[in-house]
Amino acid sequence: MSMRLRQEIQELPRQTASLARHPRLDRGSHNEVINNKMNMAKTEPIVNVNSISRISAGTVIKGEVFSPNDIRIDGTFEGRIQSKGRVVVGESAVIKGDIVCENIDLWGKVEGNLFVKDTLALKEGCVINGNLHIRRLAVELGATFNGNCKTITEAEFNKLAGMEVPPQQPKPATQQVRTN
């Protein structure tokens, strides 16, 4: 958020008092001005908490999980996780298996390969033993990583993650007949 926008938001109460006394502004347009300034300050998309899958601390799951939404894991998981959203691995989480997703924020422990379409964020205290196939990497001091790291394109991600879009079939060639 820019410094100027912060100052404007801090001055809103003072502006509110002067706008309330303004003879040509009705209450509706006054509220609209305030709402527009507040909306400009928002940078994070609003996420519906009901669309986030969660594996709580103390929970143990073995198998495969596929979710079109975000996933947060604080428990123990063994298997494959595939999400079209963000995966958050909490501090108490232990994962043994592969993770395929758009983005990962990793605080816990993972033993397996990660396939990340966009950004992998290794947070302080995390431990990962496995190979990374990522587009972007952010590493905090205190993060531990043992394995290989390869930056990939979106097409490589789709191929590695098993989401490859089949190529279009070529049109059949027409035969030409020559007569002598």
Pick out the low-confidence regions.
15-27, 164-171
What is the tally of helical segments? 4
Please indicate the percent range of residues in DSSP E strands (runs of 2 or more): 25-35%
Beta strands, count: 16
Secondary-structure content class = alpha/beta
> Which shape, going by the Cα principal axes?
globular
Largest sheet geometry: 10 strands, parallel
* Rg over C-alpha atoms, rounded to the nearest angstrom: 25 Å
- The ordered H/E elements are HHHEEEEEEEEEEEEEEEEH
Mean pLDDT over the full residue set: 78
Helix content: 10-25%
Report, as a whole number of angstroms, the end-to-end distance.
78 Å
Give the total of domains. Answer: 2
3D architecture notes:
The chain has helices at 3-10, 12-21, 27-41, 154-160, and strands at 53-55, 60-67, 71-73, 76-83, 86-89, 94-96, 99-101, 103-106, 109-111, 114-116, 119-122, 127-129, 132-134, 136-139, 144-146, 149-151. It is an alpha/beta fold. The protein folds into two domains: 3-41, no CATH class; 49-160, no CATH class. The strands form two sheets. Strands 2, 4, 6, 7, 9, 10, 12, 13, 15 and 16 form a ten-stranded parallel sheet that branches. 18% of the residues are buried.
Q: What key attributes describe this structure?
A:
4 helices, six-stranded parallel beta sheet, 180 residues, single chain, 22% helix, globular, alpha/beta, ten-stranded parallel beta sheet
Describe the SSE topology.
Layout lengths: L2 H8 L1 H10 L5 H15 L11 E3 L4 E8 L3 E3 L2 E8 L2 E4 L4 E3 L2 E3 L1 E4 L2 E3 L2 E3 L2 E4 L4 E3 L2 E3 L1 E4 L4 E3 L2 E3 L2 H7 L20
Parallel strand pairs: 1-3, 2-4, 3-5, 4-6, 4-7, 5-8, 6-9, 7-10, 8-11, 9-12, 10-13, 11-14, 12-15, 13-16
Helix pairs in contact: 1-3
